[in-house]
Amino acid sequence: xxxxxxxxxxxxxxMSWHLMMEFxxxxxxxxxxxxxxSFEALRATRECTINxxxxxxxxxxxxxxxxxxxx
Length: 71
Known about the structure:
Blueprint: E1 2-6, E2 9-13, E3 18-22, E4 27-30, H1 37-45, E5 49-50, H2 58-70
Antiparallel strand pairs: 1-2, 1-5, 3-4
């Protein structure tokens, strides 16, 4: 999950493509479309968090993304 915030608006986006690019220092790469709010917020603030939920949160994460998949 990629989390961003801008002008008081928080946003969490499920991310489907990411990879470990370097181990020392740790460096993670990811791909974002330039057609969504997450990209706009990240570009403007240059800040985000990449979050890996625990397995016990799987049902909650899935439930929060289902409306996106149905659209």
